[in-house]
Design a protein that fits this description.
Helix content: 40-55%
Number of strands: 9
Oligomer: single chain
Number of helices: 12
């Protein structure tokens, strides 16, 4: 979808999209005064934005971050009296949540969550749906649905279980307790723990650039294979095999071999 390419301004209130020339796309939750709490409009726009990215063949990596000092305080409870006022509106709201989580989970390119400050509720769900998560030492995590009398979408809970294990998922969702960054790292929820936000952003940039320089078809096949391993679904396995088979006849495979023999960095085109 060509209208996504080069976009670098507000696509909706509360969201900011920017992209670098190396194929790294950054999606910023941009409500720092509200700790980047996500409105219903933002949930919908997250899904639409990531879906649009899937059609942009120049995109190689997606980085999800929060503006200011926090990642995301979760859903904006201030609008619940209107948008989540009863069972019908709550189900519609949950559908919007699930669509945003699914967009990140199934995104064509790897998604990296860059987490500083609070990462609560729906923000925790967004991070869990990403492929990689890195955090600053001041990051703090919580799944507080039980304190609000709500339930998380089952698909979001599946992401949380996959990201931090069933035991920790039970503890967080049953207790509503807060988890420090060090503990989140020890559970495996965080790939790396950085001393501060500046170090976090630098490390995320390094990882994103490294991924963006590798063969996109190979990465897509790996992402699909990992998803198939986690889901155990036959259709996911078939999709992963198809993507893997496609790499064998690709121009990138020929380029990778040539670059290795010529002892030069490869130049992958995603074909």
């Amino acid at each position: 979808m060509g209208d996504f390419q080069g976009q670098s301004d507000h696509s909706a209130p509360g969201l900011l999209i920017a992209r670098a020339g190396d194929g790294v796309v950054t999606l910023t939750l941009d409500r720092p005064a509200k700790k980047n709490a996500v409105t219903l409009a933002m949930w919908r726009q997250i899904a639409a934005t990531v879906d649009a990215l899937n059609g942009d063949q120049t995109a190689r990596v997606l980085v999800l971050r929060g503006a200011g000092v926090d990642f995301c305080a979760g859903a904006d409870i201030g609008e619940f009296a209107e948008v989540r006022r009863d069972a019908g509106t709550a189900r519609a709201y949950e559908d919007a949540n699930s669509a945003a989580f699914a967009a990140l989970r199934t995104c064509r390119v790897p998604a990296i969550a860059s987490i500083a400050g609070v990462c609560f509720g729906g923000g925790f769900g967004l991070a869990a749906a990403c492929d990689l998560r890195l955090g600053a030492a001041d990051a703090v995590f919580a799944v507080p649905a039980a304190r609000l009398g709500l339930a998380y979408p089952a698909d979001a809970m599946a992401d949380i279980v996959a990201a931090c294990g069933q035991h920790m998922a039970r503890y967080l969702s049953f207790s509503g307790a807060r988890l420090a960054a060090k503990a989140a790292h020890e559970t495996g929820f965080l790939l790396e723990l950085l001393p501060d936000q500046a170090a976090l952003e630098a490390r995320v940039s390094d990882i994103a650039s490294a991924i963006a320089g590798n063969a996109p078809l190979s990465i897509a096949a790996s992402k699909a294979s990992i998803r198939a391993a986690l889901s155990g679904r036959d259709d996911d396995l078939a999709h992963a095999r198809a993507l893997g088979d496609a790499t064998f006849d690709s121009a990138d495979y020929a380029e990778g071999r040539a670059a290795f023999l010529e002892r030069r960095p490869p130049r992958f085109g995603g074909r």
